[in-house]
Design goal:
Elements: H1 2-10, E1 39-44, H2 46-51, H3 56-66, E2 68-69, E3 72-73, E4 80-85, E5 88-93, H4 99-112, E6 119-125, E7 128-133
Parallel strand pairs: 1-7
Antiparallel strand pairs: 1-5, 2-3, 4-5, 6-7
Length: 137
């Protein structure tokens, strides 16, 4: 109540100029459209697949069964796609998706198939994980 009285005593305030929330004709707000960002993450399983200790298609089905979207299993819809190309698994998402979650699931797959003692998951690029053998000297 005190703030309202103080503002009324000061008289009419000038309108602030700015582009945020600027209105077009018809009363629609301009500048609030967000561009859809497509996230793409890759997991390279080249070396273990060539050596025959791992099957890339089994890994892809494991991920397909385990990945949660919006807290629900098997909720891919059109927002998330999982592709297998030779020994590379690619996940494309239009909704926010964590690269770290992909690493967690990859490690879970390796542990389930008793490969965790020989393979590790390494980020080889900003959007790529690679399965590498441990270097023992």
């Amino acid at each position: 109540a005190l703030e309202e009285r103080a503002l009324a005593a000061m008289g009419p305030q000038p309108k602030k100029k700015g582009t945020k929330g600027a209105q077009k004709k018809g009363g629609k707000v301009a500048g609030n459209k967000k561009k859809r960002q497509v996230l793409a993450f890759h997991i390279e399983c080249k070396h273990p697949c060539e050596d025959g200790i791992m099957n890339a298609s089994d890994f892809e089905t494991f991920l397909r069964d385990r990945i949660k979207v919006a807290g629900k299993l098997g909720n891919f819809g059109s927002a998330v796609t999982l592709e297998l190309a030779k020994s590379n698994v690619t996940l494309k998402s239009e909704v926010p998706f964590s690269k770290r979650y992909l690493k967690y699931l990859t490690k879970k797959y390796l542990k389930k198939n008793s490969l965790r003692d020989w393979l590790r998951v390494v980020a080889s690029n900003k959007d790529t994980y690679e399965l590498r053998y441990f270097q023992i000297n």
